[in-house]
Write a structure and sequence with these properties.
Layout (H helix, E strand, L loop, with lengths): L1 E3 L8 E7 L11 E3 L3 E10 L2 E15 L6 E16 L14 H4 L1 E4 L3 E3 L1 H11 L39 H10 L1
């Protein structure tokens, strides 16, 4: 997803790209791209700054946090990135306060911009921290490991709590 800056005219450049899933490595065993990535948007040049706004669509196979089942997760997100030229003489500061524009900022070298890292970041940020196959996922039985979404096991789940809290359970039973 590399664009030449010289081809971005004053009126902007509309684009639509279908990028192969093999070009992106998510570095996660729990989420694997299953569909090619569709990115469409607009590039606009303002001086040396280039603004990219658009949308992204793809599909992943992810693992449910509770029941460990794999399922398809669709990613749809809005892409917004400000590209500025990399300054060679800039010194790293000890403490820097980030603004909202800094989060959306990328740098370009020479005469090309590359959307690949921004697209990868958007895909990873679209994933929730706790990924559930369904909102009311029952998870796995703590004793036998049965997927409780598919079948009910015969285990007794009463004693599966923390034994240090047994005193509180007795107190709760007395108050009933």
């Amino acid at each position: 997803m590399i664009f030449d800056i010289e081809k971005i005219y004053e009126e902007g450049l509309d684009f639509e790209v279908l990028e192969a899933k093999e070009r992106f490595n998510l570095d996660s065993p729990d989420s694997v791209l299953t569909e090619d990535i569709k990115v469409q948007g607009r590039l606009e040049k303002s001086g040396q700054t280039i603004l990219c706004q658009g949308s992204l669509e793809t599909g992943l196979t992810v693992t449910c946090t509770r029941c460990l089942s794999d399922f398809t997760f669709l990613v749809k997100g809005d892409l917004k990135v400000h590209f500025t030229p990399r300054e060679e003489n800039s010194k790293p500061a000890d403490e820097v306060e980030l603004t909202s524009q800094d989060i959306e900022q990328e740098f370009y070298n020479e005469s090309q911009i590359d959307l690949s890292s921004s697209v990868r970041d958007l895909i990873l940020l679209s994933l929730p921290q706790v990924i559930l196959c369904q909102e009311d996922c029952a998870g796995l039985c703590l004793e036998c490991g049965t997927n409780l979404n598919k079948k009910i096991c015969a285990c007794k789940h009463e004693g599966s709590g923390d034994p240090r809290l047994a005193v509180l359970q007795q107190l709760k039973d007395k108050l009933k």
